[in-house]
Amino acid sequence: MARKPSMGRQKIEIKRINCEASRQVTFSKRRAGLFKKASELCTLCGAETAILVFSPAGKVFSFGHPSVDSVVERFLSENAPPQEESMQIVEAHRGASVRELNRQYTEVVNQLEMEKKRAEVIQQSSAAQVRQGEAWWEAPIDNMGLLELQQLMISMEQLKRNVTKRADELVAKAAVSSPFLAINSMGIMDRYAAAAARHVPNPNNSQAIVPHGHGHGYGFNFGRGFY
Fold this sequence. Notes:
Elements: H1 20-45, E1 49-54, E2 60-65, H2 68-76, H3 85-131, H4 146-177, H5 185-198
């Protein structure tokens, strides 16, 4: 049977998205991508950039290097007066700090994307094990990397906390539904101790009661007790 030829990667037609939810999701993704590209441009080339974006709901988002205000003011001021030397030093230091922050931001975004991909791989692997009748905690760990082992450890600790919490809830529920289980055992022993104290001979009393030779109990309502 001949295999159906693949359509390959197709271009998405650029037009307004009618679905409001899909339009909002697309806006969030494209806005993040736009800001990321602008940050990379500033880091690689030392460019000064300002971006203003209004969402379909009217909420404003901005990105600027070194800041939106400084870039806009520079754009609006055609004949800006020369800055003093001290101000130039301050601006240079500020620009270096912003470039470093942009670099760190780009690294964090890249790491976040890698972690999302790793999480998707782990979820797919766990789903495949469940379909095969295996529990996710029984997965072989020989081929796991450090991040996968850390994620597995966190998941198992969370499972342990959930099991402990559920067990405590069941025990508390059983105690409430069965009052006999909630009786204080010390209270029962206290009653036996009080009964025993009433039959302890007083050493100062010469007429102290002596237990009968063939008695089978000692006053605890068992056997024949004292006479």
